[in-house]
Amino acid sequence: KDPALRRVAVLMAPRILDLFLARISIQWIATNIASGLGEGRVSAVQYGFQLMNMPQTLIGTAIGFAVFPTMAHLASRRDVVAQREALSGSLRAILTLAIPAGVVLLLLGRAIIQVLYEGGEFTPRSTELVFAALQAYVVALISLSMLEVVVRAYAAQQDTLTPLVVSVFTTALNIGLAFWLAGTSLLHAGPPLAYGLAVLVEVTIHLFILRHRWGGIDAGLILRDVGRAALASLGMAGVIVLLTAWNELPPILLLLVAGAAGGAVFFGLAFLLGIREIRSIPLTLAREVLGRRIRSAEG
């Protein structure tokens, strides 16, 4: 009989349906379409999703969980300006990390797959199939990471119905795109690309709605940092491409050398370009680790 409990149940129902549609979009559509495209393609789609999901969880899901209590607190105070700043800052942090992560998967994904999986029944052909799916999932890495924060902005306002309505539309869009792209030369990479594009449309619609509600979302700041992250990622990509031209390097050595050199170039360029998150994120992590050690020592 608790009214608060009833309110939670009312808010949960649309969110459960939304997550159900997301599961259909992620797994059911891609798996069923890929099953008719030839041997090994269903597994390739599943492996590709797992590899994309690792950085997506570390970036999008982690930041989404971290910022949600702040968003909920600000929403309860009806502080629109602060909510806008929290959303903008979170999206800029996500994009600053997700864009270079996507570049790494595009350029070093084959080596990652070779190191993790290749051997025995997992042949070089299997590697190529998984790599094709992984490259297509790069769009989903970026758009899904953004969605993790955007949907929590609605949840903080106790609005779970709007995301469900938008998700119904984008799920239908995903199904249509998946069948169409699978019929092209992309084959099993078509459904992963369709999913990423559909989620990108979903994020865009949500941001337009929030922009209308809040009178802005600091789009200029977001686009500025996206441009800076893209430039830094472009420099990183150049270094990785040069190093991957040495075909004689074994995959594990290629990952170590190209990964370290590319990462150094990205962070150096990002610092020079003035991307604030490059300095704030390491400092925040350092404070957190140091704080835990101090608390452990005192305990």
Distinctive features:
mainly alpha; 86% helix
Q: Your description of this structure?
A:
- There is one protein chain.
- Helix 1 (3-34) runs parallel beside helix 5 (161-182), helix 3 runs parallel beside helix 7 and helix 4 (124-156) packs parallel to helix 6.
- This protein has helices at residues 3-34, 41-76, 80-116, 124-156, 161-182, 190-214, 219-244, 251-273, 276-298.
- It is globular and about 65 Å long.
- It has 299 residues and is mainly alpha-helical.
Question: Can you give me a brief rundown of this structure?
Answer:
The protein has helices at residues 3-34, 41-76, 80-116, 124-156, 161-182, 190-214, 219-244, 251-273, 276-298.
Average per-residue pLDDT, rounded, comes to: 90
Strand content: under 5%
**Main sheet summary:** none
Spans of at least 5 consecutive residues with low confidence? none
Structural class: mainly alpha
| General shape | globular
* Strand and helix order: HHHHHHHHH
Tally of separate helices: 9
Tell me the Rg in angstroms.
21 Å
**Number of DSSP-assigned strands:** 0
> How far apart are the first and last residues' alpha carbons, in Å?
42 Å
- Helix amount: over 70%
